[in-house]
Amino acid sequence: MIALEGQLAKLMTMSPVQLRSLWRDTYRSPAPDIGPDLLRRGIATRLQERIHGSLTNTTKREIKRLRKRVERTGKAGNMHAISLKTGTRLVRSWNDKSYHVLICDDGFEFEGRHYDSLSHIAREITGAHWSGPRFFGLKKRSGHQARSRTNG
User: Per-residue pLDDT tens for 78-115?
Assistant: First the structure.
């Protein structure tokens, strides 16, 4: 641990040329065209990952999903949103008709169209404003998690 702290402290005194060289050694690829501060941060991250481990694949997927949402909408959304596995199918009966929603990496698919929100789908089905998670049985009105009706 002390060795890591020493390496991280040494980064602060390195010149841009030294940082680019260390980046090449650390990542086994040329340094991107970024400033010394970002080079330091990237190298520090990799050094810490070697000691403490990297992010889990689930966390990496969530970051990727949020990044895509920010690129599309400018908003990341609620970090405490309900987490459903990709490929899960939600089924909801409404007015004697069954509706199926597929959970995708970056949102939801309903009747061949992509949606960012279950609430938008609930509105399509009912014509009225609904909480999408509540409409599909994922949350109770009080906000507590309910047993979902999913087929995976």
Answer: 655 567 888 999 999 999 999 999 998 878 999 999 99
Q: Are 115 and 108 in contact (CB under 8 A)?
A: yes
Q: In whole angstroms, give the CA distance from residue 92 to residue 75.
A: 28
Tell me how far apart the alpha carbons of residues 117 and 107 are, in angstroms, rounded to a whole number: 7
116 sits in which H/E element: none
Is there a contact between 66 and 72 (Cβ–Cβ < 8 Å)? no
Torsion angles phi and psi, residue 97, rounded to 5:
-130, 140
Q: CA–CA separation, 63 vs 46, rounded Å?
A: 17
Q: How far apart are CA 130 and CA 92, in angstroms?
A: 13
Rounded Cα distance, 109 and 115, in Å: 6
**Chain centroid to CA 12: how far?**
31
The amino acid occupying position 111 is E
Two tokens at 151?
A: 């087929």
